[in-house]
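Dear colleague,

Thank you for sharing your sequence with our group. We've completed the structure prediction you requested, and as agreed, I am returning the results in plain text so they can be pasted directly into your records. Please verify that the sequence below matches your submission; if there's any discrepancy, let me know and we will rerun it promptly.
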Amino acid sequence: MNHRRMETWLQYVKDELTNEERAICESHLDSCDACFELYMQCLEQAGDVLPQLEDQEAFSAAVMMRLEQEMPYTRPLEMVPEQTKRKLRIPWIQHPFFHYTVAAAITMILMSTGVFQTLTQHISRFDTASEKRTAETRILHVSVSEKLMNKTIGMLDSIQPRYERGDTHESK
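Please find the predicted structure tokens below.
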């Protein structure tokens, strides 16, 4: 990225550049924060040379009108006319309070009919059945583990050297 020098920005502010150079500087300002800072410094330095606005309020009003024409939906809500505000209101069926009320009503109906109590009874049945299966699995696991351990010990005993087992007779 080619940054512009301070002198170039001063020429830009004083409108001393050609149209082609001016367009290049403007496109560069859009993408470079460092050069934008230099440009702002040049504006401050050349503040005495630049023309002053005679009617600042009229200029502000003209800018606001142009903005409203180009982007009509970006105005703050307090600037929107009352008729448009009515159109912006959400229908009562889409309002969050309506959704909370419906959810509370459904919860009350389900509680009063005993649906939640029935659900908890079914869950407790599943829990007890699960506990029984877990206990059976533990017993099965322990018995398989014990069998595996006994076979391993038997195999280790069979490959143990004879002198450790107590045999004094050595084969020659």
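Summary note from our side: Residues 9 and 39 are 6 Å apart (CA to CA).

Kind regards,
the structure core
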